[in-house]
């Protein structure tokens, strides 16, 4: 399946002699990865290294009465047991440093690290960790946000100003209550989502040592080497420059490597023991040990006027932050802002909260709050369209953001609003490709599944108890919007250094920029941008990216931002270096440029007014599903995924991001069910936490790429890697509704949930513990 | 709930000769050593990846007597007298056709599942040189790819089968010509 | 994994001698696909493993004689899936093997080990929980998270048997040949599988010093057909939410004999005798299948989160019966 490209390719850009931007050269790491030669953190070792093993709490909330390391130290091979007292400055965190490297007095979630064992062999370290005797006094477990906010509930982190309420955000514009009171049609519903685990394949791992010059080197995987450095240095009480973070090949990330996990443990042991150390987490440690996607509960009320225009939205979101802040404040701000999706809504009252509990902390995961918020928003839009007898595409066409529209925060959207274009391209392609869907302003009558042999379409889907017992096909469509780049005034910049070499002509270049390639292919894209600007073949452009001491700070591999921000920094540094070249006889020139996109601002705490973002990505997805109402099994047959990428620097990498994003979105929608009970993780292995296989992904994924140039991105490029995760869940919900007539409101849509919805519709879900009636009235074949 | 922990008893190391990628490796191992750990830690063959260590992901897939198996669920001492092939044992001066196909089809992103995927397809093509699409898909159902590169992995499987079929045809053609020469 | 000893004896007698008196601290090792995961999770902590893959008298042979099909305990799931005899005479077993696990696991796992695998209950599999099945006093799933648990209450534990093969083999009226210090014995699988009790917290009556030698499937009745259907959360490589094995022998235009066995609903394969009784002597049609399905689940006692399994099981029963009675389907 080739990628389809619409829009104005290269519009307004001067032609480059070599078309290295817009092409898909082979990945530079291909040979190493297919031969097994690539070295990932778990493959590293240092001569004379000690092996580390962390002692995890294994209980959600307890006071530590004592740690007796003697039995462990008596075990042959065990060299040291480190505890909180050994950590120079025992706090870290990406946004707020509220988390200890090793627990101090209390454990707040099952994955909390309590002690660190160092031994001559991995087996001795593992045994030593079992032999460390920690005495606990269990404390009451704060197991969910509702409990956490109830009066009298114990505090997860005593001493915080708002108790267990970690953060709260309000965004208001116009008069939502009045608008809803006067609306022609008002719908209300509540949506829930659960945790999602990143399940990157390479578990947290790394090596660390102290150089002769006193620098602590940690070689590992992550998403932002320079911030890892800042945080690690802080825990050791060292200046940033005395810590070096190096990235080996990175075995997936998806947001799950934004927070520190093993890095401060490695640095602490190497620094304290003055020996090289290695640490590899096992899968269960990884499942417990890094933050997940936030479970959210979202109540939404939407109202439309008689013309089918959205008048007002009230929405309220509560997220389970778990035991520590991680990036919860930022995720909840982003999610709250996106509770109205990509729709012009004159009157909004949006409210979001993140709540501390004794559950696994939650933080960044591809999409960063957008998937949950738009599960609610897009489901409401689809239901409103149905309620007023409108076509889901036409309703969206009428209400989607246009260029110059105001955001809920009262300021105009950044230029480059591709909401309508992606929707229309997606709808048209879905109709063409699947022979189903919508004819611009209306559903093609009776078209559903007509070209297909299997499946069937009955207009009164779901109302006929007999017909709905056979597998039924349905189609659904949804839009998505997601900020690209940092938001709400978080410092946003990337620095690149470009060195040019040659005699007379520029012959080769070295680009230095500390951007993490987590598998998405950004290193190749950055080299393509440089090669294009320098009129050099790709092979003449070297990249130094994986060492915090050798490359400047690019910011994180997150928020789909590296192509835009780091790419622009490279682009501008290339231009600056080239500009120097004719002025000198040197055989080497160098230029360093820091690119800062247009500034964003924090939101006003009362009104929510402000400029939250400088760039948005837009997407639309259409899915066709087959639902077996008798078993609840949903199969996604095909997906059209439309994205406005500004400019496709590397089309094949974009195609990979679409297909991979759809696979993760499919897992989120149908399969992945991370479960906790009373603070304990039930899904500790991949036996319990099921990930999509090759047979679960749709047969057909059609990436559809639009190129409306971004004003700031290099060659007009903007990011896109998170967008496939955004519309998918509500698109599947709409398709299931189309097939069998029920709206699912609780993610994931497992067979159990679909069964519950069909048997007890309306309004019952697996979360409502209602045993199915043991009658056969609804079950005749 | 703590279980009573007694210090581990000393267990004698066991001699075992592992036959890996055509070479014999005499080792002295604890019985609890998995084949995966022996390959990675004792033989330095780190191309075989440790992801779940519970038989739930496929990244540790190797061929044992020609069949794809999870090396994390095999004891090394249990693999004496068995032929083990790892990703390092594929290809030679040139890439194995499956490796070649993975490069051509862009069949990975982070690359961590790649050796396991390739080994599963190697087992398939050795047993079924002319596989159906369904056989290719089924052959990699025991190998998770979290980056979601599945469709390209399936394309790579198809492409590899075609490459090998072409090579067989060429060889067959040469053989066919032989009587005429 | 904790330390253990390893021995690879040459004969069954040697192996039995090594197992004798071990009282669970000595465990046989075949495919290892379940035992090693239990050991890695610190759920099983044997001091010694006895490799039984190299025993002279224990094999993976699949053979047909007058008493039916004999399957050596070491036959792998992959062997069962592909074997022509199994496919012809016991298709429900071939289908169950094909629906289980992943290609790699099917290459490793043996039929003997598959029948002995322990439940997948998340409380049982967590070393942090000392549940009843592991010798504790309480089943945490009974009032906890029990979406994957039993519909039929057989013991203090509500975990379900995870084996696809077991469901199919009970429907095929299979038996196991066992050997222990006192010699050999044969048990029907209906006797072999037994809900755990206070004194025996396992899902079968195999003694710690006994080995499964082989599985025997009696010759199918004339005009008999069978199938195995499985509902999973994932398209492949997941344990059954519900599995159904059905075998039906036709007697003219009526059902002469029937077996319906459910997996994923009890601690042992669950034989739906009420449904079987209802079918015998009747003409097959959709209404009959629906009544049989209702009868099979009439005694179900769902827990808080697993009621969905009732309609799911009914559906699979109806579909399985339709499949094995449809005209034109290949006989078995």
TrEMBL record, chain A:
The keyword Chaperone does not apply. The keyword Oxidoreductase applies. Residues 772-781 have a biased composition (Polar residues). GO terms for molecular function: iron ion binding; xanthine dehydrogenase activity. Residues 35-140 form the Aldehyde oxidase/xanthine dehydrogenase a/b hammerhead domain. Keywords: Oxidoreductase. The lineage of its organism: Bacteria, Pseudomonadati, Thermomicrobiota, Thermomicrobia, Thermomicrobiales. Pfam families: Ald_Xan_dh_C, MoCoBD_1, MoCoBD_2. Gene3D superfamilies: Aldehyde oxidase/xanthine dehydrogenase, a/b hammerhead, Aldehyde oxidase/xanthine dehydrogenase, molybdopterin binding domain. It comes from the Bacteria. It comes from uncultured Thermomicrobiales bacterium. Its EC number is 1.17.1.4. This is Xanthine dehydrogenase, molybdenum binding subunit. Residues 1-26, 447-467, 757-781 are annotated as: Disordered. Signal peptide: none annotated.
UniProtKB/TrEMBL annotation, chain B:
CDD domains: fer2 (cd00207). It holds the Pfam family Fer2. Residues 14-90 form the 2Fe-2S ferredoxin-type domain. The lineage of its organism: Bacteria, Pseudomonadati, Thermomicrobiota, Thermomicrobia, Thermomicrobiales. Keywords: 2Fe-2S, Iron, Iron-sulfur, Metal-binding, Oxidoreductase. It comes from uncultured Thermomicrobiales bacterium. Gene3D superfamilies: 3.10.20.30, [2Fe-2S]-binding domain. It comes from the Bacteria. GO terms for molecular function: 2 iron, 2 sulfur cluster binding; metal ion binding; oxidoreductase activity. Coiled coil: none annotated. This is Periplasmic aromatic aldehyde oxidoreductase, iron-sulfur subunit YagT.
UniProtKB/TrEMBL annotation, chain C:
Pfam families: CO_deh_flav_C, FAD_binding_5. InterPro entries: CO_DH_flav_C, CO_DH_flav_C_dom_sf, Diverse_Substr_Oxidored, FAD-bd_PCMH, FAD-bd_PCMH-like_sf, FAD-bd_PCMH_sub1, FAD-bd_PCMH_sub2, Mopterin_DH_FAD-bd. Transmembrane segments: none annotated. PROSITE patterns: FAD_PCMH. Residues 1-222 form the FAD-binding PCMH-type domain. Signal peptide: none annotated. It comes from the Bacteria. GO terms for molecular function: FAD binding; oxidoreductase activity. Keywords: FAD, Flavoprotein. Gene3D superfamilies: 3.30.465.10, CO dehydrogenase flavoprotein, C-terminal domain, Uridine Diphospho-n-acetylenolpyruvylglucosamine Reductase, domain 2. This is Periplasmic aromatic aldehyde oxidoreductase, FAD binding subunit YagS. It comes from uncultured Thermomicrobiales bacterium.
């Amino acid at each position: 399946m080739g990628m389809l490209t619409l829009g104005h390719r290269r519009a307004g850009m001067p032609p480059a002699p070599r078309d290295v931007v817009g092409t898909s050269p082979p990945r530079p790491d291909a040979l190493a990865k297919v031969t097994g030669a690539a070295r990932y953190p778990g493959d590293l070792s240092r001569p004379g290294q000690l092996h580390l093993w962390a002692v995890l709490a294994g209980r959600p909330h307890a006071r530590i009465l004592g740690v007796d390391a003697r039995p462990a130290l008596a075990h042959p091979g065990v060299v040291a047991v480190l505890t909180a007292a050994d950590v120079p400055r025992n706090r870290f965190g990406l946004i707020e440093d509220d988390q200890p490297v090793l627990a101090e007095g209390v454990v707040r979630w099952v994955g909390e690290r309590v002690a660190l064992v160092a031994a001559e062999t991995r087996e001795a370290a593992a045994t030593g960790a079992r032999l460390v005797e920690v005495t606990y006094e269990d404390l009451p477990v704060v197991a969910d946000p509702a409990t956490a906010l109830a009066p009298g509930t114990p505090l997860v982190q005593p001493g915080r100003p708002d108790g267990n309420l970690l953060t709260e955000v309000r965004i208001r514009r116009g008069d939502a209550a009045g608008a809803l009171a006067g609306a022609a049609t008002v719908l209300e519903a509540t949506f829930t989502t659960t945790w999602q685990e990143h399940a990157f394949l390479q578990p947290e791992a790394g090596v660390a040592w102290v150089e002769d010059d006193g620098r602590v080197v940690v070689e590992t995987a992550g998403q932002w080497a320079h911030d890892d450095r800042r945080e690690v240095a802080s825990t050791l009480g060292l200046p940033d420059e005395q810590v070096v973070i190096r990235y080996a090949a990175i075995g997936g990330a998806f947001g799950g490597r934004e927070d520190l996990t093993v890095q401060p443990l490695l640095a602490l042991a190497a620094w304290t023991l003055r020996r090289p150390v290695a640490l590899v987490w096992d899968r269960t440690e990884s499942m417990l040990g890094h933050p997940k996607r936030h479970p959210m509960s979202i109540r939404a009320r939407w109202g439309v006027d008689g013309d089918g225009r959205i008048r007002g939205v009230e929405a309220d979101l509560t997220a389970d932050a778990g035991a520590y802040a991680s990036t919860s404040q930022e995720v909840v701000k982003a999610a709250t802002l996106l509770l109205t999706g990509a729709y012009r809504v004159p009157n909004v009252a949006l409210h979001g909260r993140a709540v501390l509990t004794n559950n696994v902390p939650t933080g960044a995961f591809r999409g960063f709050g957008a998937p949950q918020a738009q599960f609610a928003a897009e489901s409401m839009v689809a239901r409103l369209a149905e309620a007023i007898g409108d076509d889901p595409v036409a309703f969206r066409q009428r209400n989607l953001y246009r260029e110059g529209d105001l955001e809920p925060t009262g300021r105009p959207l950044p230029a480059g609003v591709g909401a309508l274009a992606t929707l229309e391209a997606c709808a048209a392609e879905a109709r063409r490709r699947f022979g189903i869907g919508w004819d611009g302003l209306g559903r093609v009558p009776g078209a559903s599944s007509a070209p297909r042999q299997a499946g069937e379409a009955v207009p009164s889907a779901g109302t006929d108890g007999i017909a709905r017992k056979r597998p039924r096909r349905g189609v659904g469509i949804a839009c998505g919007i997601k900020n690209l780049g940092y938001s709400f005034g978080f410092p946003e910049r990337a620095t690149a250094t470009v060195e040019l070499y040659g005699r007379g002509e520029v012959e080769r270049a070295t680009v230095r920029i500390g951007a993490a390639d987590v598998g998405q292919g950004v290193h190749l894209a950055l080299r393509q941008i440089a090669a294009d600007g320098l009129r050099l073949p790709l092979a003449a452009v070297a990249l130094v990216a994986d060492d915090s001491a050798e490359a400047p700070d690019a910011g994180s591999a997150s928020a789909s931002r590296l192509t835009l921000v780091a790419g622009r920094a490279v682009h501008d540094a290339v231009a600056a270096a080239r500009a120097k070249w004719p002025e000198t006889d040197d055989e080497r020139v160098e230029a360093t440029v820091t690119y800062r996109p247009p500034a964003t601002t924090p939101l006003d705490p009362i009104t929510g007014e402000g400029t939250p973002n400088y760039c948005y990505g837009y997407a639309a997805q259409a899915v066709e599903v087959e639902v077996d109402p008798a078993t609840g099994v949903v199969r996604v047959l095909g997906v059209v995924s439309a994205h406005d990428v500004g400019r496709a620097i590397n089309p094949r990498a974009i195609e990979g991001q679409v297909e991979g994003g759809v696979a993760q979105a499919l897992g989120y929608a149908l399969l992945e069910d991370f479960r906790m009970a009373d603070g304990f993780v039930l899904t500790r292995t991949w036996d319990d936490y099921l990930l999509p296989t090759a047979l679960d992904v749709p047969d057909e994924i059609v990436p559809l790429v639009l190129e409306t140039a971004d004003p700031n991105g290099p060659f007009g490029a903007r990011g896109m890697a998170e967008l496939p995760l955004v519309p998918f869940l509500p698109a599947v919900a709409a398709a299931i509704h189309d097939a069998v007539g029920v709206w699912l409101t609780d993610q994931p849509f497992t067979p159990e949930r679909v069964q519950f919805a069909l048997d007890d519709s309306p309004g019952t879900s697996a979360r409502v513990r209602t045993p199915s009636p043991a009658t056969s009235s609804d079950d005749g074949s | 709930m703590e279980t009573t922990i007694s210090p581990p008893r000393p267990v004698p190391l066991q001699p075992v000769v592992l036959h890996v990628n055509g070479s014999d490796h005499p080792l002295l191992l604890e019985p609890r050593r998995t084949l995966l750990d022996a390959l990675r830690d004792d033989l330095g063959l780190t191309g075989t990846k440790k992801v779940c260590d519970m038989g739930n992901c496929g990244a540790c897939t190797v061929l044992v007597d020609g069949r794809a198996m999870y090396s994390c669920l095999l004891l090394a001492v249990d693999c004496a007298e068995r032929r083990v092939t790892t990703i390092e044992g594929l290809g030679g001066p040139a890439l194995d056709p499956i490796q070649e196909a993975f490069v051509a089809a862009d069949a990975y992103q982070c690359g961590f599942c790649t050796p396991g995927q390739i080994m599963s397809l190697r087992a398939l093509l050795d047993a079924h040189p002319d596989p159906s699409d369904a056989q290719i898909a089924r052959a990699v159902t025991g190998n998770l790819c979290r980056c979601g590169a599945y469709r390209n992995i399936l394309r790579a499987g198809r492409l590899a089968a075609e490459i090998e079929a072409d090579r067989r045809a060429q060889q067959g053609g040469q053989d066919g010509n032989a009587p005429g020469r | 994994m904790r330390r253990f000893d390893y021995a690879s004896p040459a004969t069954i007698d040697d192996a039995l001698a090594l197992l004798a008196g071990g009282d669970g601290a000595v465990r046989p090792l075949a495919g290892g696909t379940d035992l090693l995961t239990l050991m890695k999770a610190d759920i099983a902590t044997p001091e010694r493993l006895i490799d039984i893959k190299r025993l002279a008298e224990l094999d993976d042979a699949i053979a047909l004689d007058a008493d039916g099909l004999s399957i050596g305990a070491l036959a792998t799931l992959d062997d069962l899936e592909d074997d022509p005899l199994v496919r012809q005479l016991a298709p429900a077993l071939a289908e169950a093997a094909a629906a289980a696990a992943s290609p790699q696991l099917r290459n490793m796992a043996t039929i003997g080990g598959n029948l002995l695998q322990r439940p997948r209950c998340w409380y049982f599999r967590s070393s942090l929980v000392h549940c009843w099945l592991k010798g504790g006093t309480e089943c945490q799933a009974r009032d906890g998270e029990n979406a994957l648990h039993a519909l039929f209450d057989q013991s203090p534990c509500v975990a379900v048997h995870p084996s696809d093969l077991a469901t199919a083999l009970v429907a095929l009226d299979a038996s196991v040949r066992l050997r222990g210090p006192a010699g050999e014995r044969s048990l029907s699988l209906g006797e072999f599988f037994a809900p755990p009790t206070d004194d025996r917290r396992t899902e079968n009556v195999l003694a710690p010093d006994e080995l499964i030698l082989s599985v025997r499937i009696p010759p199918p009745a004339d005009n008999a057909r069978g199938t195995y259907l499985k509902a999973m959360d994932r398209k492949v490589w997941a344990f059954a939410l519900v599995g159904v094995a059905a075998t039906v022998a036709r007697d003219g235009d009526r059902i002469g004999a029937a077996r319906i066995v459910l997996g994923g609903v009890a601690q042992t394969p669950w034989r739906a005798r009420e449904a079987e009784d209802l079918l015998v002597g009747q003409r097959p049609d959709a209404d009959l299948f629906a009544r049989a399905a209702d009868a099979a689940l009439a005694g179900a006692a769902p827990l808080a989160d697993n009621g969905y399994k009732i309609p799911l099981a009914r559906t699979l029963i109806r579909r399985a019966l339709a499949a094995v009675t449809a005209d034109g389907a290949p006989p078995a």
